[in-house]
Amino acid sequence: MPFVYAGKLVRIDLTSGSYQIEAVEDTDVRRYLLGSGLAAKLFYQEMDPALHPLHPSNPLLAFNGVLTGSFAPTGCRSSWCGRSPLTGLWNEANMGGHWGAELRFAGFDGLIVTGRAPEPVYLWLHNGQVEIRSAAHLWGRDHFDTFEQLRAETDGKAQIACIGPAGERQVPLANVMQGGQGHARTAGRGGMGAVLGSKNLKAIVVHGDEKPQYPDLKAFQAFVKDINQFIKENAVALSQLGTAGGVPATERTGDLPIKNWTLGSWQEEAARISGQRIAETIFVRHTHCFACPIGCGKIVRVEEGPYAGVYGHGPEYETLAGFGANCLCDDLNAIAYMNDLCNRYGLDTISTSSVLAFAMEAYERGLISPKETGGLELTWGNAEAMIQAIHAIARREGIGDLLADGVRAAAARLGPEAEAFAVHVKGMEVPYHDPRAFVSMAANYATSARGACHLEALSYWLGYGIRFAGWYERDDWDDHDSRGKGQVAVDFQNYMAVYNPLGLCKFLGRAKVGPGHIADLVNAALGWNWTLNDVLTTGERLFNLKRLINLRLGITRADDTLPRRLLTEPRPTGGAAGVLPDLDLLLEEYYRARGWTPDGIPTEERLIALDLV
Question: 94 with 190: CB under 8 angstroms?
């Protein structure tokens, strides 16, 4: 009986308009899984470090995980991989929704796209067939319009992943979007939307009728029934309020960045933009990704005031933290409107809000003048100015042209004073969990493969009381003590590194699903014989592989650092007041635990042990 994955990928050259279908080798799947795992292996083999990230020959690799399209809980994820135009490094942007499952039903595990079409095109993958179609009529349309048009002109049931105008203009903050207005999901970080735009590729449309097969269907069904119940019992708050429900807790612990990471407390204002407030005011209904027992998505509608008419996927934690606390805007309806704009344009809300906070501080310091903003008063909390700046970024107009390339590039243009408050790691804007509140995240941010990324470790969950049976169970925990936290970062990076390649959502971890559960799930679905240690070793192999990619792209030990503000300026008040991570201690412990040299290079001995040489 065949395994759940399809066993096929398609290579497409948009310059010539040709494609070829290739087999996915089982030996590769056993070693690298699928998703960002197999994508990293193929990218490492075929990469040319001399090419600009947006060069036509640089590939876009869009791959499902091994369990995507199965009824494994949250078996829906797809990874969008390649070289980031924002950082210049390896990038994997992962999204849920329904596109990945439909790609599996269309008969493919993934696709590798190179070249540049002479005119805008979209791809139509259906039941093992591949077509390249004109997208001239779609160029310039936003995500929602594109979704509806492509649904109408294919078969009415297809799933669409597309770019908006920001991707067309090759803005390095641009996303790949899917799901339309009702269930917008995104491959959100590192500018993969710009990669599609550089190829004149507007969308990838998928549909099919091929269903996965399982070695023992009844046994798998029984296992999924049991684990889904476990997940539901441990994810009640996430189901009810979504990630937005975490805003008050992050403010309380000192985890919520405020005013470009300078303040410590924002209690009353945080309550006004929280998931709890959404539930009381603009909530419409819950939404679920394919095969998800949690349902963290929330549809909202704004019915009154200047932003009346907003309808669609509601702002999540990172969006509320970014446009809200980090920019000092406590107008929930305005943030819902900003979120809707970003979904339409195809912009990453983390990087976009971060570059706005940076611009507000630059404006306050006089480094950006009203003349340069075109009259926009980029003062803290000015929602209307923020909205106009989002338009400008997506269109690369006026002040938006300065901000569209991200915080690092904007700071370099404004000079040394601006670089002192530019909050990024390796060019990636820092997501909204403060490493001064949970210092294990300092080691994670400094070493993450794609630049600052909370999703590569998620060790801050320990600070919120989440424990994992048979793995991390201890309760004597001090989130502010750097000792031992380098090892914690390694452990969580290894664990989280298997999620994208398996096609699973990391919110399973919020429901206390540990590596032992994942091993059991894989065995039930695929008939393998994984143990907890196999999960972690596979994750370690994949993390090291991405390190090898980045070393080839030019990173050094000096790049494993944090922005000056997070190393030298403690929060003045709140739950993390006075705390700073000891990064030297963290990295010394981290490199030792990884089996890397003091310069951050994997040793030959470690690579041999991980079957990477």
Answer: no
Of 339, 472, 365, nearest to 422 (Cα)?
365
Q: What is the pLDDT of residue 559?
A: 98
SS (H, E, C) 120-140: CEEEEEECCEEEEEECCCCCC
Residue 475 has pLDDT above 90, yes or no: no
Domain 244-414: give its CATH code. Answer: 1.10.569.10
In one-letter notation, the amino acid at residue 40 is A
| Cβ proximity of 80 and 92 under 8 Å | yes
Closest C-alpha among 384, 420, 427 to residue 559: 427
For the chain, the structural domain boundaries read: 8-207, 244-414, 429-609
> Taking Cα atoms as reference points, which of 237, 240, 275, 12 lies closest to residue 132?
12
- The span from the CA of 398 to the CA of 373, in Å, is 7
Q: Which two tokens stand for residue 427?
A: 């060019």
Q: What percent of the chain has pLDDT over 90?
A: 99
**Pairing state of beta strands 8-13 and 110-114?**
parallel
Average pLDDT value for residue range 33-62: 98
**pLDDT tens-digit series, residues 104-157:** 999 999 999 999 999 999 999 999 999 999 999 999 999 999 999 999 999 899
Going by their DSSP bridges, the two strands 18-23 and 8-13 should be labelled as antiparallel
Count Cβ atoms within 10 A of the Cβ of residue 171 and give its class: 0-12 exposed, 13-18 middle, 19 or more buried: buried
Alpha helices in 179-322 (DSSP H): 192-198, 217-234, 236-241, 247-253, 267-272, 275-281, 317-319
Q: Is the pLDDT of residue 2 over 80?
A: no
* Cβ atoms of 81 and 92 closer than 8 Å: yes
Distance CA 172, CA 233 (A): 39
The pLDDT value recorded for residue 1 is 58
pLDDT at 379 over 80: yes
Q: What is the mean pLDDT of the segment spanning 437-462? A: 98
Using an 8 Å Cβ cutoff, are 159 and 147 in contact?
A: no
In this predicted structure, the answer to whether residue 362 has a pLDDT above a threshold of 70 is: yes
> Quick one: fold of 8-207?
Aldehyde Ferredoxin Oxidoreductase;  A, domain 1 (3.60.9)
pLDDT per residue over 488-535, tens digit each?
999 999 999 999 999 999 999 999 999 999 999 999 999 999 999 999
d(CA 94, CA 518): 19
Q: What is the pLDDT of residue 474?
A: 85
**DSSP structure string for 463-505:** GGT---TTSS------TT--TTHHHHHHHHHHHHTTHHHHT--
Mention every residue, 6+ apart, whose C-beta is less than 8 A from residue 536.
491, 494, 495, 515
Q: Report the percentage of the chain scoring pLDDT > 70.
A: 100
Looking at residue 210, what DSSP letter applies?
P
Q: How confident is the model at residue 521, as a pLDDT?
A: 98
Rounded distance between C-alpha atoms, residue 456 and residue 448, angstroms: 6
Domain 429-609 -> CATH class: mainly alpha
Nearest to 170 by CA among 61, 52, 77: 52
| Tally of residues, the chain | 613
Query: Which residue bears the tokens 């009259």?
Result: 375
Burial class of 381 by CB neighbour count within 10 A (0 to 12, 13 to 18, 19+): middle
